[in-house]
Amino acid sequence: MAKLFINEKNKKGHINAEIYGHFSEHLGRCIYEGLYVGEDSEIPNVNGMRRDVVGALKEMGIPLLRWPGGCFADEYHWKDGIGPKETRKKMINTHWGGVVEDNSFGTHEFFELCEQLGCKTYVNGNVGSGTVQEMSEWVEYMTFEGVSPMADLRKQNGREKPWKIDYFGVGNENWGCGGSMTPEYYANLYRRFQTYVRQYNADRPIKKICGGANVADYFWTEDVLKTCFAPPHPDFMHGYMDGLSLHYYVHPEGWEVKGSATDFDDKVWYKTLSKAKYMEELVTRHGAIMDQYDPGKKIGMIVDEWGCWFTVETGTNPGFLYQQSTMRDALVAGVTLDIFNKNCDRVQMACIAQMVNVLQSVILTEGEKMLLTPTYHVFHMYKHHQDAELVESFVEGNNIIGAEAEYQVPHLSESVSVDAQGYVNVTISNLSISEGAPVEMVFAQLEPSSVQGTILTEEVHAHNTFEEPDKVKAIEFTEYTIEGRTIRFTAPACSVISFRVK
Ligand code: AHR
């Protein structure tokens, strides 16, 4: 029997809602078909945005959306995506399938989508193939209220009022697709480019995100911070940034082979989950470097790309990165979100990649059909952690399980928060492929009088298809007993459970 101790009175930090953020790139069928079908489509839409997808994302509680990339961001020239659609420039999407990008989804459409979703905005600028002027003008176009060439252009294009940019990324993966730069070179460019990301609205400041490391490239983190924190200029005290990004994808069989999304054995199950758990080490070690420059933790770690990256589904364009999503993805999501919650003092935002039809998506579409993946259900079950306070929790007797020493994981993963309505939100996952886990959940003071349980559990390979869209879905969980300060239950193998307790 594992004992989960919860000290609901010991608050450890604020869980930023943006930790539950999403990413949408001009890649495959993410934007086009997945989100945007155009006003003339037969698929029900509002100003071109799919009604079904927008509705499901709102219900899930999407707090933030990152756009337009990804690798695409460093090849994106924003002026190609404004003005009358018939005259917008067409380009080749060189990164993703070599298809024609007609720029019918641009700046106005992105903000329209975020307005419909009611979420915060994260725009990623172009450092790799763009200029300082281009980036600076884009920010002016989007956020300046007064009289200026770019504000006037925006008004000519039908938008009187400026929009709000919550976060602005200065380049993406500039160690790779964003320009193959060295850390010092990028950091100097970062200092320069970010200078011209002007704050036109003192009451609505834009948070600037510096491009961080790939996986365990601690050298990148160190060198970028050293350069950004070097004088002169008073801003060097903050490294000129509000956040530093980190990208990490789980490839069970490595970058070259990746592995099937739906066909895997027990060993690969544990390998995948142990790779998901590796996020903890990455957050700790990159965080330790950040602590040296920013001991007050003012700069957020921004994990703006994470998730499972498998081999594409047979018969689909390899450049479109379309993959299925099983219960294994659900467990990866649960484990990862618990890690982010528990490190909320440093992790201030994260974006799973990518929202629709690409990598570990929460939604898949086919023509007018839409399905919710197991990962969607996990985000839905975790939504009460958004903007809640993390509280102390600890599992005693958490066995180590797994296929081989190399791929071992704890039997249970958990995180606990208290929200503004006074509910204690507990999320707990059983990572075992075969063994249930009896759990005794003990609160420090609370004697629960109201408990709402939800569970997502199925066979490990289970996934939703357009023929069977509800095979995997979250349902009410009532198999628990309450005695004083203790709730007892058994977490089935391969399950994610959430409790809302008062
Ligand atoms: O999410 C797919 C790609 O992965 C992104 O475009 C890029 O930033 C990363 O390498």
From TrEMBL:
Residues 304-495 form the Alpha-L-arabinofuranosidase C-terminal domain. InterPro entries: Alpha-L-AF_C, ASD1_cat, GH, Glyco_hydro_b. It comes from the Bacteria. Gene3D superfamilies: Glycosidases, Golgi alpha-mannosidase II. SMART domains: Alpha-L-AF_C (SM00813). GO terms for biological process: L-arabinose metabolic process; polysaccharide catabolic process. The keyword Protein biosynthesis does not apply. Its EC number is 3.2.1.55. It catalyses: Hydrolysis of terminal non-reducing alpha-L-arabinofuranoside residues in alpha-L-arabinosides. SUPFAM superfamilies: (Trans)glycosidases, Glycosyl hydrolase domain. Pathway: Glycan metabolism. Keywords: Carbohydrate metabolism, Glycosidase, Hydrolase. GO terms for molecular function: alpha-L-arabinofuranosidase activity. It holds the Pfam family Alpha-L-AF_C. Belongs to the glycosyl hydrolase 51 family. Homohexamer; trimer of dimers. This is non-reducing end alpha-L-arabinofuranosidase.
